[in-house]
């Protein structure tokens, strides 16, 4: 249940406010994940190596480095959100993201500036990770604090679709570019267009977020507020369970976003089919998070989360076995669509469930740090890990096995989390009020 909330209620959010939160997140997430869609092409530009495997691993390692900065962004910008407000933190993250995405789009290739190219690419990627690490927590906090208590799941589920809409836009742009340009042109410079398109839309997100209402309602003077370490220790149980739950979702999510690279480097399918696979992943996953979040407002958070994770644990290996055996675009698209639906059922519940367990004054820091840490350790490394596993084992089922293990662990951990859905809490007499 939500603890230690101030008596003063935050201002209610309007529909346009929720739309502004989602649009800003969608644009930001597009800029962050489009890097992985063009991993093969970026590897050729910035990380030339003696083999295609080494070049790809260097690129995916840089992709993972962006996640390494996310815990720091979650802690620093999350603390800023708990002190200066949700709106200010969310606007700052978009400014930082704009600077990083422009840098990636214009850095010359290794053939022109040598080692400066990969160094600059890594630096820009770290700024991206820092920015996105500090964005999710204040956005989720704002939706919980300014939305209806009875519709929190639906509101946060709507926002979590940005994790699909951003990649959806990125894969759509990648598909269009792969159809319009030759492979040589796409490899040489076409991928930079996708980054520049993202940079052009960020000013819109910044303008929208600057007009959001502020939902942080301080319940004590800043000088008397507990420090970050004290607050983290006080809530270490929910933080640990939240880490496991979000790690499960982020691992599964980024393995599915890996479909573009898997299709090209393992199945040897054409780029148009590869980009089409992630287009399907995000197209079918986007509405599921909203529906599941809405459903969890009535059924509680635990049932949809646990059952979806168990189903995914059982389905992951058979689905990848089917894709590897069939090796057609039809099998690839159908298989990733099935797994995406199961993955998003859990995601639509996980974010609101974890955030509800944290009180307002630690929500930005707690959620942001745990979210960033789980992605740094698991989500950001997922694509590199499965690429390595496929290489050393020779098994094309490695992504399925990794996904299955993580989902089983997530389902087990969720059994120890308290129910937080206001309707269920009130029905069971576990609390008298919710923020």
Describe this structure in words.
With 435 residues, the protein is an all-alpha fold. The chain is 80% helix and 0% strand. It has helices at 15-37, 39-46, 52-68, 70-84, 86-106, 110-113, 116-133, 136-146, 152-160, 162-180, 183-210, 228-234, 236-257, 259-265, 271-299, 302-326, 329-356, 360-393, 398-414, 422-428. Helix 2 crosses helix 3 (52-68) and helix 3 (52-68) packs parallel to helix 7 (116-133). The longest helix is centred in the last third of the chain and has 34 residues, at 360-393. The chain is globular, with a radius of gyration of 21 Å. Mean pLDDT is 80; it is low at 220-224 and 430-435.
Task: Supply the key terms.
globular, disordered C terminus, mainly alpha, single chain
State the end-to-end distance.
10 Å
Report the sheet with the most strands, covering strand number, pairing sense and barrel closure: none
Oligomerization = single chain
How much of the sequence lies in strands comes to under 5%
Outline = globular
Summarize this, please?
The protein contains 20 helices and no strands. The chain has helices at 15-37, 39-46, 52-68, 70-84, 86-106, 110-113, 116-133, 136-146, 152-160, 162-180, 183-210, 228-234, 236-257, 259-265, 271-299, 302-326, 329-356, 360-393, 398-414, 422-428.
């Amino acid at each position: 249940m939500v603890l230690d909330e101030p008596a003063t209620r935050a201002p209610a959010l309007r529909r346009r406010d929720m739309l502004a939160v989602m649009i800003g997140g969608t644009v930001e997430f597009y800029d962050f994940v489009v890097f992985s869609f063009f991993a093969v092409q970026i590897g050729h530009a910035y990380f030339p190596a003696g083999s295609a495997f080494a070049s790809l691993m260097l690129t995916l390692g840089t992709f993972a480095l962006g996640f390494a900065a996310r815990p720091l962004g979650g802690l620093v910008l999350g603390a800023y959100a708990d002190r200066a407000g949700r709106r200010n933190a969310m606007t700052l993250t978009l400014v930082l993201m704009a600077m990083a995405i422009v840098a990636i789009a214009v850095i010359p290739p290794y053939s022109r500036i040598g080692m400066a190219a990969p160094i600059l690419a890594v630096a820009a990627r770290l700024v991206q990770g820092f920015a996105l690490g500090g964005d999710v927590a204040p956005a989720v906090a704002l939706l919980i604090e300014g939305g209806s208590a009875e519709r929190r799941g639906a509101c946060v589920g709507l926002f979590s679709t940005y994790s699909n809409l951003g990649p959806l836009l990125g894969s759509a742009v990648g598909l269009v570019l792969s159809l319009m340009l030759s492979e040589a042109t796409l490899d040489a410079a076409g991928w930079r267009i996708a980054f520049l398109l993202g940079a052009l839309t960020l000013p819109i997100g910044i303008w929208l977020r600057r007009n959001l209402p502020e939902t942080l309602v301080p319940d004590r003077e800043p000088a008397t507020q507990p420090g970050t370490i004290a607050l983290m220790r006080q809530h270490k149980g929910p933080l640990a369970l939240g880490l496991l739950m979000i790690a499960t979702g982020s691992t599964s999510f980024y393995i599915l976003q890996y479909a573009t690279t898997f299709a090209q480097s393992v199945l040897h399918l054409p780029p148009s089919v590869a980009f089409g696979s992630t287009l399907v992943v995000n197209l079918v996953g986007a509405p599921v998070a909203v529906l599941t979040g809405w459903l969890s407002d009535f059924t509680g958070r635990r049932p949809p989360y646990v059952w979806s994770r168990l189903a995914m644990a059982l389905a992951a290996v058979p689905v990848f076995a089917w894709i590897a055996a069939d090796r057609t675009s039809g099998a690839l698209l159908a298989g990733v669509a099935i797994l995406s639906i199961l993955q998003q059922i859990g995601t639509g519940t996980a974010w609101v469930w974890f955030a509800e367990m944290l009180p307002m004054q630690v929500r930005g820091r707690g959620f942001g740090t745990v979210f960033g840490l789980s992605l740094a350790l698991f989500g950001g490394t997922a694509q590199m890990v499965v690429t390595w596993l496929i290489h050393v084992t020779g098994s094309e089922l490695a992504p399925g096995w990794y996904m299955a293990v993580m989902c089983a662990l997530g389902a087990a951990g969720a059994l120890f989390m308290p129910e937080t859905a206001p309707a269920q809490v009130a029905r069971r007499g576990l609390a008298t009020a919710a923020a």
